[in-house]
Structure prediction request, 466 residues.
Amino acid sequence: MKFWVKLDLSIILMIAVILSCSRFMVVRQNFKYSIESSVEQNTNQHRLERYSLESNMINNIQLGEEVTNEKIVQSIQSLYSYMENDAGKVAVFTDNQEMIFGNFDEIEKVAIDEFFYQEIDNYGIRKIGDKHYMLFFSRWSINNKEIYMIHFYDVEVIYQIRERQLMEMLYMDVVILVVASIFILLFARFLTRPIEVLNETSKKISSGEFNERALVKTNDEIGELAKSFNKMADEIEHKMHSLEQSIQAKDDFITGFSHEIKTPMTAIIGYSDLLRLKKCEEKVTSTALNYIYSEAKRLEELSHKLLALMELTEDRIEFKSVNIKVFLEKMIKKIEWGDVILGLNLQEAEVEIDQSLLEVVIRNLVQNAKKAEPKDKKIAIFGERLENGKYRISVLDNGRGIPKEHLARVTEDFYMVDKSRSRQNGGTGIGLSLCKKILAFHHAQIQIESEENVGTKVFFELEVTK
Prediction:
C-alpha cells in the first residue's frame, strides 16, 4: 500500500474516532441534562398531586367522613378532572397491593413489586411497550391505612430527540469525512510527492544513471533528506568516476608496461638469437652486444622505478624538519651530473620532508632537464620563500621544451613526448609520475611551464615549518 494512502486512511480514521467520541459525549450530556430536567419537573408534579390528594383526604377526615377506597378513588377522580391535560398516568394501591385506581392502560406490563419494598420515595425509568416512562413512587398513611401511589410520566420525546441527534450527527460525520478525505487525499499526495521523487531517483541511480538528482525544493525535513541524498549521490558519482579513472589508469599502466617490456625484450632476444645461431663479424657482434646491454640497463632502471612506485605508501614516509638550502646543496654535491652545470640560487627555510624521497624528485627533475639537451649545458635550481608561507623549488633549462598538447599528460605513467629519443636517453616514462606521487604525500603539486625550443620550468611548493 502506498504511503500517501496509509497517511490518508490514518488521518480519516483518527478524525472519525475523534468526531464520533466528541459528538457522542455531546449527545450523552444533552440527554443527561434533559433527563435531569424532566426528573425535577416530574418530581414537583408528583409531589403536587400527592399533596393535593393527601390534603383532600385530610379534609374528609376532619368532616368526620371515613377513609375508604371509594373515597380515595373519588378524590383522585375529582383531582384529575381539574388537571386533565397536565397530569400523568397514575395508579393507587392499598397496603395489600390491591390496585384501587389506575388510568394507565398498560399497567399490567410494569413490574412494580419492587416499589412496595422500598422504605423511601423513589423513581425509575421503564420502557413500556414502545415508549419510555418515568415512574415516581410514594407511600403515606391515613388513619393507619397505607396508601401507595405510582405516577407514570411519558419521556419518550427525550429519547426520540437523542436518537434524532445521533442520526443527524451520523449523517453530518459521513459528509465531513467524505469532504475531508478528498482534501486529505490531495494534501497527502502533495506532501508525499517529494518522497516519490526520491524513490524514483534512487531507482535510476541504482540502475546506473549516476548523474540523476532529486529535484526537491522544500525547506522541511524531506528537503533536508533530499539534500543529503543528492550529496550522497554526488559522492557515489565521484567515487564511481574515480574508480573508472583508476581502472583506466590501471589498464593504461598495464598497456604501457607491456609495451615498455616488449620493446627491449624484442631487441635483446633478437640480437642474442643472432649471436647464438651464427658467428658474426666483430662490428656486428659489438653492435648487438651494445643493444643488449643498453636495453637490459633500461629494463633494470624500469624495474627500480616500478619497485619505488609500488613501495611508495604513506606509512613508509618519515617526515623531518630540515634546512632546505643545506639539504639541496649537500645532495647536489654528492651526485655526478656529467657534462651539465648546475646553478643554485637558494634561500633558507625549514620544511617538513622525507629526505630520501625528495632526493628522488630532484634527481628525476634534473635528469629530465639534462635529457632536454639545454643549449648552454646549464640547469638552474631556484629555492625561494613565498609570502603565503610556502617554499618554491624550481628546476629550469633552456632545452627543447615540451609541446603544449603534451603538457597535460607528461605526468602519466609511461607517457613519453618523443619515445624514440627517450629510449635513446634511457627514459622509461614514469619519472614524472613518480615525482607526482611523492609530492602528493608532501601536500604539493608538480607544475610545468614549457615552450618548444625555448625551455622548461618545473616547480613545486612545500609548506614552511612554523
